[in-house]
Structures are given as C-alpha cells and as structure tokens.
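Weekly structure sync, notes
Attendees: PL (lead), two postdocs, one rotation student
Agenda item 3: pending single-chain targets
PL asked that the sequence for the first pending target be pasted directly into the notes so everyone works from the same version. It is reproduced below exactly as submitted, 271 residues in total.
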Amino acid sequence: MLSTGALRAHLLAARLAGPVATSREESLRSYRAFAARDPRVLIGLDPEWTWGQRDLIGLMADKCGVSADPRHVSGHDVIDPERTLAALDAFADRLGAVAERNGPVLLGTGHPHRLLGFYAALADALSAAGCAVLTPAHGRCVDITTRFGLRTYNLAYVRGVALVRDPGPERPGCEPGAHTHSPLPVRTVLGAAAEAGGVLPELVIGDHGWVCGAGQLGFEAIGLGDTDDPALFVGEAEGSVSVAVPLDDAVRSDYYRPLTRYVLNRACLSQ
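Predicted structure, written out during the meeting:
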C-alpha cells in the first residue's frame, strides 16, 4: 500500500496540494459570486445558511488550508496536504461502506480530460466488488448555459463514468468529453432513473455539479474540489455533501494514479 508519507510527497511534487495553480484572485472571485448566489458557482447547491465572502474565506481556510487573511488577494492558493489526506481517508471509507453492502453507485465528472481515469478505476473496482455502476439516460440531450450561450450536449458514459459531449460523431484523438460545472447532467440522470422506476444510487461520486446537484437532491455524494469550488465545501459544512476532498482538479491525468491506488487500498477494493 502507498504510504501516507509517500502520498503526501506526491501531492506536493505534483502540485495537487501545497501551492497550486489556482490563483487567489480566482478563488476570491468565486467566493464573491457564491456570496451573491450566482448559480454558476452554486453548481446545484441551495445553501441553507447565509455565506458572505469572509465566511467563505474562513470555511475554505478550515477545509482546504488557504489563507484566512482577507487582505491576501493575490498569488497562488495553497492547499494543506494534511487536509487532503484526511479527506481522502474519509472518501475511501465511504467507498468501502457502499462496497460492503453492494450498493448501487453513480459516477460522473465535469473534468473528463483530467479525472476520467481516476473515476473509471473506482467504477471498475466497485463493479468487481458487486456494486451496480448505474448508467441511466445515456444519449439524453442536456441544454447547458455556458459563457458562449446555450449549448446542447449529449450525456454519455465512458468506462462507467458519466460525462457530457458535444453532439455529433466521436472523433479519434479528441477529448473524451466537455468541461462543465453544471448540475443539469446529474439532475437529468437521476430524473430519468426515477421516471423509469429504475435503481437509484446509494452513493454519487464525482466533482462540480455532479456532487452538489446530487447532494442537494438528498443523495449521499462525495467528490473532489479545488480552492475556487466553494460549493462542495459549503455542502459538506451544511451536511448535503458527505465528503469534499481539497486538491487541484486540473493537473495531468496520470498524477491522480497514486491517489487511486491509495483510496482503493484503504477501501479494501484493490484488485
């Protein structure tokens, strides 16, 4: 098993934690937008409490290890690797629990170009452990508002992981899917499963709107979040998100492989 010390060293070397690529300016902009209840930053969450920018800075300092000083307004954000490790342990514990009872799971990502491999390995391991990896609403269209206007995407599953793609035939060499923060894909997936009278997930695993959208609907949800994704950590603080793991969610895809090994080993899901 990958030791905690080795994983900590990897987190820092790969800049998954420690000084990360996300800038303080980006994070503060997200906190301001969240405080103003901008749906682009709420990503499916309907907060119960009132969150001002200073409240969010304090929360993110506690959950991620960013600077708690509101006068710190520039430079790289910092994630405390100890917080990442603790959250990965909690994340693995939830995987182990659902595997132990052979519960159905749903996995989805808004970062397919970076995180597809991470989630696909979890899907493989959970399936091997006897969990049903759900794939409802495959091929369904979803209209998502982007900075370029309203765009239509298609829901797809790659190795058991839900994502959205631009419509049209798949082209070799292209990215596996589109980047999105929207909760509409998970709402569409869960709604389709419910309408069909199908199995619903006992655990939703993912990022962005997949986690917050599912958690807001009352499903247990766990996932990964960067320092400019306050919604996941607000959801965890309020109880609608079970586990939010602080890390840079946009480094090279192969940098997540040690995290996969660590999580699967702790969850007793290694094959």
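Discussion points:
- The mean pLDDT is 95.
- DSSP finds ten helices and nine strands in the chain.
Action: rotation student to compare against the earlier draft before next sync.
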